[in-house]
Write a structure and sequence with these properties.
The chain is α/β, with parallel strands linked by helices and about 375 residues long. The chain is built from twelve helices and 14 strands. The structure holds 3-isopropylmalic acid (IPM) and magnesium ion. Magnesium ion binds next to α9.
């Protein structure tokens, strides 16, 4: 069997320092579990713009299409705010998603026991929370045409288009139903069918796909009501499927329910490749946090958990993913805390690499 390949794109801000900890974890799995990866590293975002004048070089794009999985840190920073829209760091990320056709974006929102005091909501509302948002990632208003800023008469008009084909809705719906089958068999689809035709079609197609999954309890909610229900009683949900823009908003909301944005990973999956693995990109939900970049303050857990998702969804190593997740739970239960996790009850303050050390020694103990 050939060694699976992994392209690492640390990106900007805290991306490189959290990714450095992931590299140590990857090395641990190689040394201790015989899981070896052919790892290569490249630029994306502002750092790619600085070097090549584009946030994603064509060679990097081509490499991303070849590898078994891409692991990305974060992109962006204030020094790039004034750049033309077409070369902003985020465009590099959007190009990867679009050209790899990563239509199904899995964003778990899980509340770690040791951190249930961190939520802005009451502890009993979030304790034990474990939901999964499946966000459509390659279509909708993010990519629909026409788009642009045009002149009409004597004023300008900004236009974006919400557009979904049946097949685009059906494939993301199917991925959400498949996931629901492996979890609590509950799926809630969110759109605005009361206002938008694309929402009416969304609801119809999700319902049709649902006929293939009679065991899954399917419900529909308007996305605004969904936002309200997510803050009122989030534990009513298991899997949520929604479009690109609503998914962007709702996943930030869901992430913050857990109180720790620095903890949440994501997976963006496409169609299966020849070897049966889905095209895949894994990245933390958090951004590049330029205010703390380079200071060793960043929490590497979201990025490490993104690698755990890669083990599970790309490399069929669910048990090893669980081992890594359990090591992180143990470290948190022991009170090891990066700055973002330091609450009133205190704990042992650690730097980014200190958190890496703690997770590595918890992994050692797991053997
Ligand atoms: C996200 C981010 C991106 C998005 C940005 C950085 C383009 O907010 O992944 O949620 O809007 O999709
Ligand atoms: Mg977002």
């Amino acid at each position: 069997m050939t060694t699976p390949s992994l392209l690492i794109l640390p990106g900007d801000g805290i991306g490189p320092e959290v990714m450095a900890e992931v590299r140590r974890i990857i090395d641990w799995f190689g040394a201790e579990r015989g899981l070896n990866f052919d790892v290569s590293e490249d630029l994306v975002g502002g750092c790619a713009y600085d070097k090549h004048g584009t946030p994603l070089h064509d060679d990097t794009m081509a490499r991303a299409q070849e590898v078994d999985a891409v692991l990305l840190g974060a992109v962006g920073g204030p020094q790039y705010d004034a750049l033309d829209f077409s070369v902003k760091p985020e465009r590099g990320l959007l190009r990867l998603r679009k050209e790899m056709d990563l239509f199904s974006n899995l964003r778990p929102a899980q509340c770690f026991d040791a951190l249930s005091d961190f939520s802005s909501l009451k502890k009993d509302v979030v304790a034990g929370l474990d939901i999964m948002i499946v966000r459509e990632l390659t279509s909708g208003v993010y990519f629909g045409e026409p788009r642009g800023i045009f002149t009409e008469g004597n004023e300008r008009v900004g236009i974006n288009t919400q557009r979904y084909t049946e097949s685009e809705i059906a494939r993301v719906a199917r991925s959400a139903f498949e996931l629901a089958m492996k979890r609590d068999k509950k799926l809630c689809s969110m759109e605005k069918a009361n206002v938008m035709e694309s929402g009416i079609l969304w609801r119809e197609v999700v319902t049709e796909v649902g006929r293939d999954y009679p065991e899954v309890e399917l419900s529909h909610m308007y996305a605004d009501a969904g936002a309200m229900q997510l803050t009122r009683w989030p534990k009513q949900f298991d899997v949520i499927v929604t479009d690109n823009l609503f998914g962007d908003l709702l996943s930030d909301l869901a992430a913050m329910l857990t109180g720790s944005l620095g903890m949440l990973p994501s997976a963006s999956l496409g169609a299966p490749m020849e070897n049966g693995r889905p095209k895949a990109l894994y990245e933390p939900v958090h951004g590049s946090a330029p205010d703390i970049a380079g200071q060793g303050k960043a929490n590497p857990i979201a990025c490490i958990l993104s690698f755990a998702m890669a083990l599970r969804y790309s490399f069929d190593q669910g048990d090893e993913a669980t081992r890594l997740e359990a090591a992180i739970e143990r470290v948190l239960a022991d009170g090891v805390r990066t700055a973002d996790l330091m609450g009133p009850e205190g704990g042992t303050p650690v730097s980014t690499s200190g958190m890496g050390d703690a997770i590595l020694s918890a992994l050692d103990t797991s053997l």
